[in-house]
Structures are given as structure tokens and as C-alpha cells.
Design brief:
Mannitol-specific EII, Chain A; about 130 residues; transport; alpha/beta; five-stranded mixed sheet
Length: about 130
């Protein structure tokens, strides 16, 4: 799992782009993955928002996934995501349904543990966040 901390972004699209670029540079997704996520948002709205301050952008395996992984992008300043204030973007890419479920379970365990989630939300140190997850 990749971790990146950014002070602020101008839009939720920029946040998603940053996390997709991390995944793309490491060889987990192709360049078409980011536009596929934006298409999902246009079609379905902000369904990626999974909790207070948390969004989990993703697209289908056929939208450019090479291998499964995730990028945690923590914003020090929240950004508006279609009416939701988001500070944590957990962008996942899953190669298949089994990988998808494994990633979802890992992310759920992070989001459901208030101690872990608070450590992530209040940290601006990538290494500290990496240790927590």
C-alpha cells in the first residue's frame, strides 16, 4: 500500500489523480484508470464516500488494472467531494473480485478502528501512516 500526504488540493479530481499517478508510476494501473474513475463518478455520483472524511475511489479491473494495490492519500486540508468533506482518499485497484474483497476488508478494518483512523487523520508523516496500516 502506498502512502502520500499532501497539504491541500484544489479539487477531488486532483486528489484522485495524485493517488492514481502513484499507482501508475509503480506499475499497478495504466493511464486509463484515472479517467475511468472520473466516469464512474459522473455516472453514479460520490458513492465512493464510505465514511466521515473518507473516500475510496476505484474502477473495474478491465479499466486498466495491472495488479492489485492501494494508495492512501491523506490531505491536511479537506476537499469537497460533491458535498462531502474528504481528507482521506484510499484509491484501490483490484485485478479480480478476490483481490477486490481482500482490499475492501483491509480498508474496512482501518476505517472501523477509530484509533487507527485517528492516527492516520492527525498525522502528516507518511512513514507513521505506513506503520499504522
Amino acid at each position: 500500500m502506498f502512502v502520500k500526504v499532501v497539504e491541500y488540493v484544489n479539487s477531488y479530481q486532483e486528489a484522485i489523480k495524485i493517488s492514481c499517478e502513484e499507482l501508475e508510476q509503480a506499475g499497478f494501473v495504466t493511464p486509463r484508470y484515472y479517467p475511468a474513475i472520473l466516469e464512474k463518478i459522473e455516472e453514479f455520483g460520490p458513492y465512493f464516500c464510505i465514511g466521515e472524511n473518507v473516500a475510496m475511489p476505484h474502477a473495474r479491473p478491465e479499466d486498466g488494472v495491472i495488479a492489485s494495490n492501494a494508495c492512501i492519500l491523506k490531505l491536511n486540508q479537506p476537499v469537497d467531494f460533491l458535498g462531502n468533506e474528504i481528507k482521506l482518499f484510499i484509491t484501490l485497484c483490484a485485478k479480480d473480485s478476490n483481490s477486490h474483497m481482500e482490499l475492501i476488508q483491509k480498508i474496512a478494518s482501518i476505517c472501523m478502528n477509530s484509533d487507527v483512523l485517528n492516527k492516520i487523520m492527525y498525522s502528516d508523516n507518511e512513514e507513521d501512516i505506513r506503520k499504522v496500516v
